[in-house]
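Thread: "does anyone have the structure for this chain?"

Original post by V.I.:
We have the sequence but no experimental structure in hand. Need at least a predicted one for the grant figures.
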Amino acid sequence: MALDRFLYFPADAFPTQQQIRDVVAHYVGPSATIKEQGCRIFVEFPGDSFFAEVFRPERFIEIFVANDNVDVMTRMADPFTNCVANGIAKWICVQFNGEQEDRSSNYPGNYLGEMEEFFKWRWSQTFPGELPPQGLIAIFDQMLHRLKEKTQ
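Reply from O.Q.:
Generated one for you, tokens below.
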């Protein structure tokens, strides 16, 4: 499940993709590799994502530079990349006098339910007709329980 952090800037001071890349590179330092593909900046971290057994194992953040906003997003609901992406979004706003869209009503309450639904859907797409192993369900339930505790 992706989490988006939409950033908006004054029209006369919208940062260039290179400026954003430079700020992100300074923020993460040598802990990540930065790559670009078109209007996207990818921040790739070593190690596997939190859900590597079920989804893609890569641990990364994607930054999409649009004409009127910047979207700092995570794809796999990985707690580490979500935290780093939050910091990157705030740092970009500080550096370029931007504002981050308030999506607090979407996080964390709705986020947990959406993540559970996404997990079920993704499993059914990956392994049609199969039920998830009980151990995997237990791990997912335990993870949801921990997230709920941390957000209360």
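V.I.: this helps a lot. Residues 3-100 form a domain with the TATA-Binding Protein fold (CATH 3.30.310.50).
O.Q.: and The chain is about 45% helix and 20% strand.
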